[in-house]
Amino acid sequence: LEAFQIMGGILFFRSGLRMLEAQVGRSRSTDTEIEEFKESDEIAISPIGIPLIAGPGAITGVMLLSGKAPSTISLGTLLLAVLITMIIFYFILRAGDQVGKKIGVTGMRVIQRIMGLILMVIAVQFVINGVETIITRL
């Protein structure tokens, strides 16, 4: 479990850093897509959303939380949280165009960078927790 905490923290940190620097991920983009992204003012072109919604970081996060769940009720609460998150994401993605028009490209870039910073903070805490657990076992 500690290995998942540390590796999950590294994955989260990497994703957060890309968001903070407004970079496109190389693993999910071709050279043509990267060039189109650099030439475009549209932040929606960036393939950031899907890997963060259901990518390795999200899966690792759910695994970490389910591994620390002390009871069936806690697991049920985690499942409920995942379902609520899915519903919220559905509505956010449905309203994305309208929200994008209201806050504009600059607003979306600011939000992207703030969310990247928050993701990096969570990532560092995951790594700290994993390393701390390993050290206390020694």
Total number of helical segments? Answer: 6
Tell me, rounded to a whole number, the average pLDDT.
80
Biggest beta sheet attributes: none
N to C succession of SSEs:
HHHHHH
Q: Quick gist of this model?
A:
With 138 residues, the protein is mainly alpha-helical. It has six helices and no strands. The protein is globular.
Could you explain how this protein is built, in words?
The protein is an all-alpha fold and 138 residues long. The protein has one domain (2-137). Helices cover 80% and strands 0% of the residues. The radius of gyration is 17 Å and the shape is globular.
Using brief descriptors, characterize the structure shown.
138 residues; mainly alpha
